[in-house]
Amino acid sequence: MRKVAVIGAGMTKFRHRMLETGRELSFEASRAALDSARMDIKNVDSVVLGSAPDAFDGLHMKGEYLLDGAGGSGKPYTRVYVGGGTGVFIPAAAWWHVASGVSDVVLAVGEEKMSPLQPHPQYAFWSIFDQFLERPLGVTLLWIFSLEMRRYMSVYGIKEEDIALVAVKNKGNAMDHPSAQLPMRITVDDVMKSEPICTPVKRLDVSPTSDGAAALVLASEDVARKYTDDPVWITGVGWNVDTTFWTNRDLCYPEYVEKAAMMAYKMAGISNPRKEIDFAEVYDPFDYKELHHMEGLQLAKRGEAPKMTREGITQRDGDLPINPSGGLLGVGNPIAAAGVMKVAELFWQLRGEAGRRQVKKPVHRGLAQAWGDLMQVGTVVIMER
Amino acid sequence: MGRSHAGRNRGDYGEVMGMENPSEPQGTALTPDEWRGKEIFFRNFHTKFTYSWDTGVAIGHFLEALKAGKIVGRSCSGCNRVLVPPRMFCELCFRPTDDWIDVLDTGVVNTFSISYVNNDASRREQPLFVAVINIDGASPGMGFLHLLGEVDAEQIHVGMKVRAKWKPAHERTGAITDISYFKPSEEL
Amino acid sequence: MINKAGIEQYLYASFGPELKFGRWLIVSKAFTDKLVGDIGALLLDDQVAIVGIGYSGFSPATPSQSYKELIFDAASRAYAECSVNPRKDVGSFVCCEEDLWEGTSITDEYAPDQLGAAQRTLCTLSQDGLNGVATAYMHIKSGVASIAVVESHSKLSNVLSQSQVREFALEPYYERPILSDGIPVAAMQMRRFMHDYKVAEEDIAQVVSKNKKNGLFNQRSSYAADVSVEQAMRSPFVWNPLRRIQVAPPADGCVVAVLASAEKARSMTEQPVWIKGIGWNSASTSAESAVSSEALYAKEAAKMAYKIAGVDSPGSYFDFAEVDDTYAFKELQHAEALGIADMGVSKGNTQADAPVPINMSGGSLSLGDLVEAMGLVRLLEAVQRLRNAERKRSKGLKRALVQSWRGIPSSSGAVAVLGVE
Ligand SMILES: [Zn+2]
User: Fold this and answer.
1) What is the distance in angstroms between the Cα of B28 and the nearest Cα belonging to chain A?
2) Please, are residues A210 and A338 in contact by the beta-carbon 8 Å criterion?
3) Element (H, E) at A2
4) Four-point Cα dihedral C299, C301, C306, C312, nearest 10
5) What are phi and psi of A70, to 5 degrees?
6) C-beta neighbour count of C36 within 10 angstroms
7) Which CATH superfamily is domain A4-118+207-384 in?
8) DSSP code of B30?
């Protein structure tokens, strides 16, 4: 297994609706990442792209359409796809291109343009459900999150106010992110009083739909050392998919996230994640998911992530900063691009380049995680400097 | 295009977006007025895809049973579970399942939500009650998604006992909607 | 891992600082023998083999099974061939599928159970099955897995709007307003190819006749027929110059392949089929490049695979080839790009006694179009043929070339070099 470094990162703005096409967004992010690595596309051996459902952009074989924008023309090019988990999975896929010895330099691109679908991007999510058992009920994606949130709250006795603290923190953190779509200073009260969508989920518990792209440049050790004195290493990757039958699982705890994390921890030689991980970008399309995932990642004991949040441990100046970027709740949620944004945040934080977002404590090991499908996929990347 | 592209200045690596001294990230946000108005060109495209999915053995039998007014599961002697919804293979044991088992049309609310939106994100006039219902007679935790009815929002709770409200036999078509909803089976 | 860094690391670990003495190393015979032996073992260990392959379906329709049941069937057969328990032994599962062919968004949700992959390391690629093989290959090479599974399937019989789905793949702003299906793009590509390479109608009819007849000897072919060149030339046009009989009709089916590291492979099967080389590539997606007469993606993918496998002259290296023939002219175009037939020879090369016989299975024209599963279908045909030849101790068939293409409007494809030695 070869050592793999990240040597560049870039992203576009994340916005509800953007002028640029998906190809153009992919290009902007790819170009920014290559520029930051001081590289040109001719230095790139292969390209990995990720993007969530084809239905958003209104394109079958979306990966083929995005090819030119992502710098894949004339190169080995692969589109990977694990639902919402795709974003963090893209660098994992780029990692195995380098680790296996097949490529020395890989461009990893996440793109999402959700806005074309009318009347609302949410509509695409109807078609993710079982065609016999669930679609005839008129199901929405929001149902299953609210069902999971309720289960999590009821098993561990967690209050909506505790969960709202996550939205307050992340939207606040996003005030310092130049790409952010929903930076806001809000209070728990604002979240509690926001419009109910699917109880217990309220408007401010949810991340927005977004357009945007983000990209990374990965390289083998010898190449990385040529281009930078300051490479950041990917030391662990993990992924896991649970059974399709989500109504047969106890939704209070994400076992697949635990299993994905364990794969990555084993690779990185981590035995006590709570002590050995300095900060984390945890998947937060809904505020309760940050808590749920911290527990799956073994960064909090079961049911205790809300307590850590209440005590300020997960703030930027806390002992275990979570989502210093502002997360999906604050920066925005162009699905696959949002996951890449999280890994880019690890890159910037570890190099001390996060500017006003820089966490207070010195950091040398960070974790990014995403989650997807029918509450089913866990993807994890661990980076070190 | 109604708007010129956001300006850029590249070439000198020092000027690109390092987040330390963030220059403006690329990308041009559209305002609601811009995309609702005539300032930007759009191409509209409507399409309709038609599929005719084979139910296969497991779901086919499940739907047939619903039409007959009952719920069926499959047993697996590898892990001694009764699986609902049924499948012809057990995902834990990776072996074919063994027998058809009639389970009950009653169950317990595992978790629930009250939905104020439709699946296109538009607001509903009347909220909809949705739940995962663990089915009696199946192994613990085995259930499926359905709706709740004949109940007030405040009365619904995790652990509530419910019973299927079937459509009249002549209206049943062999679909999950042959059960109209689940309703409380005990005095609330 | 065999690469420059790996060998340097190995040398350093074996000899330590002696290497730094100067430009010349004086070593004993025992020393060099050990070196050669160890590097040989490393090289061998580095190989990846196909140890099991199973399939189901291969029919215009499969109404008695859901896609899940179809996959369970194919997977069970693949696992049985090499005595693998997917719940314990497999380190990575890779599925290749596209949402619109399934009628389900985020269709990877429905992938794990029927493969025995629930709560295991599974991922999905929106690619052809042969790209899945490349990914599994990298998983083995990077140490993620020592045994990896690749799955892809087609339930095209359930897709009533195949033409609309193909339309949905076209560029939305300047292609879709003009074309309402991908097939005319294939027809234009065919015209340009025939023009540039001076290919006659008869040459393409020859491909049709050969593949349809070859299929008569293959139990898996749904569309085999005894078709003469003359009959093939009388088939009606779909989009001139493309004739109906030159287009592979849709079929259902599933293929599951089990790959293993060299260390594992030898204990799992007596007949490992080695992946000597693998490559994949995408040219540009714009309409202009889609009508280019050269299959650049196949050329570049082959270059990558040949480099890994050490193939210098493909025309004499391979004993046979399974090459994409979704549209009959594509077989000629791909054979050219793969370097197994320059255009002058290709007409003869499509015969069974040619130096590199192409599509002895009958190809897509006989087996049908199984969309993203097609790469694995061609892999299956090549693996079966290599194993059969070995079993019969016939000397002729030891090295095979497998190539796939993702179809209109893509210019993406993959190539694998297989061998039984
Ligand atoms: Zn079982």
Assistant:
1) 5
2) yes
3) none
4) 10
5) -85, 10
6) 10
7) Thiolase/Chalcone synthase (3.40.47.10)
8) P
- Residue A158 dihedral angles phi and psi, to the nearest 5°: -100, 140
B53, B88, B93: residue with CB nearest C158: B53
Distance CA A220, CA C236 (A): 54
Handedness of CA B50, B55, B59, B62 (dihedral sign): positive
d(CA C102, CA C336): 33
Q: How far is CA C246 from CA A320, A336, B88, in A?
A: 63, 39, 39
Over the stretch B100-130, which tens digit does the pLDDT of each residue have?
A: 999 999 999 999 999 998 888 889 999 999 9
The domain locations on chain B are 56-184
B47, B52, B93 ranked by CB distance to C158: nearest: B52
Domains of chain C in start order, with CATH, are 4-45 (no CATH), 48-159+249-419 (3.40.47.10)
Which amino acid is located at B151 in the chain? Answer: V
Residue A284: name the closest of A312, A340, A326 by CA: A326
Q: Are A82 and A372 in contact (CB under 8 A)?
A: yes
Identify the three-state secondary structure at position B29: strand
Residue A244 half-sphere exposure toward CB, CA atoms < 13 A: 25
Cα of B81 from ligand 1 centre, angstroms: 6
SS3 content of chain A, % helix, strand, coil (to 5): 40, 20, 35
Facing residue for A179 by CB, picked from B25, B63, B122:
B25
Name the closest residue on chain B to residue A358, using Cα atoms. B20
Cβ distance A65 to C268 under 8 Å? no
B 55-114 near C (Cβ less than 8 A): 55-59, 87-89, 91-94
Which of A163, A173, A136 shows the shortest CA–CA distance to A295? Answer: A163
pLDDT by residue, tens only, chain C of 421 residues: 444 455 555 655 665 544 443 444 545 555 555 555 556 555 556 899 999 999 999 999 999 999 999 999 999 999 999 999 999 999 999 999 999 999 999 999 999 999 999 999 999 999 999 999 999 999 999 999 999 999 999 999 999 999 999 999 998 888 888 888 889 999 999 999 999 999 999 999 999 999 999 999 999 999 999 999 999 999 999 999 999 999 999 999 999 999 999 999 999 999 999 999 999 999 987 655 566 789 999 999 999 999 999 999 999 999 999 999 999 999 999 999 999 986 554 554 555 567 789 999 999 999 999 999 999 999 999 999 999 988 887 667 999 999 999 999 899 999 999 999 8
**Chain A residues with CB-CB distance to B25 below 8 A:** 11-13, 32, 178-179
Tell me the two tokens of residue C340. 């197994």
- Residue A284 distance to chain C (closest CA, Å): 19
User: Cβ contacts (< 8 Å) between B115 and chain A: which residues?
Assistant: 140, 142-143, 146, 197-198
DSSP per residue over C70-83, as a string?
HHHHHHHHHHHHTT
Q: What is the 3-state secondary structure (H, E, C) of C347-395?
A: HHHCCCCCCCCECCCCHHHHHCECHHHHHHHHHHHHHHHHHHHHHCCCC
Buried b (16+ CB within 10 A) or exposed e, C220-248: bbbbbbebebeebbebeebbebbbebbbb
Residue tagged 């995680």 (tokens): A369
C142:A374 CB<8 A: no
Listed by start position, the domains of chain A span 4-118+207-384
How far does the CA of residue C367 sit from the closest CA of chain A (Å)? 23
Model ipTM?
A: 0.97
